[in-house]
Amino acid sequence: MISQKTYQTLSVDINDKVAHIILNRPDALNSMNVDFWHEFPSVIHEINNQSAARAIVISSTGKHFSAGMDLAVFNASNSDDNIELGRKHDHLRRLVLKLQDCFNVLETARMPVLMAIQGGCIGGAVDMVTAADCRYCTSDAFFSIEETKLGMTADVGTLQRLPKLISIGLVKELAYTGRRMPAAEAKAAGLVNHVYEDQASMLTAVLGIAADIAARSPLAVTGCKEMINYARDHSVADSLHYMSVWQSGMFQPQNDMMEIFKAKAQNRAPEFEELTQIDPLKIF
Description:
Blueprint: E1 10-15, E2 18-23, H1 34-50, E3 55-60, H2 71-77, H3 85-108, E4 113-117, E5 120-122, H4 124-130, E6 134-138, E7 142-144, H5 158-161, H6 168-177, E8 180-182, H7 183-189, E9 194-196, H8 199-214, H9 218-233, H10 236-250, H11 253-265
């Protein structure tokens, strides 16, 4: 079972169809070291492929949510100086694509992903949370596109996803300056759904929201995620067309809808089939 595995950078707890992933390197400010880049996407893939949960909550330990990319990753990624220059640059491009894929999994996962953020959410952590479905934070939280302070351009998703969440002018200001955006401003800008006084109350609330999601038909919820993400990236006309195709194949009123009606009549919670498991190694 996923929740029984031992990880170096995080822990996983699955209860009542909600997976809670906790970044667990507080002494290192939950910075994203080499182990993290292997473990994080692997956990998301496993939960998704095994249909192990209907919602995912990601939180962390310590004072800060995450300080972003661990500098050791930059050293580990340095390729041999003897490699021909064009090939060396191709190697770097492919490395960036691999890092992007580590957070793309949050969008391709069939179940919603909710972020619970305390303290600093810096650099690569902003890349991560912008790929989630919903974000919540504590009153002491702040967000910083830190890369310009290091003489580089953010390259793992922030500059592509953040303009879909808040105004492009504000994105440019944050990216150009590297300044901190506090929780109240993040809420006013629409980056986070709600601000909580402390981490305990935030986790209680966010896990409660995840439980509400988990109580719904997983097929209906994954349909919502698919359609909303598609609409974000396509025209209204194209999105409406895709909606008609999706609904013609996925809407099965004799199953989940009838179960909801029966459950209401019998004064009980509805029971839904899980989404099918995926074996990435099998074609048939």
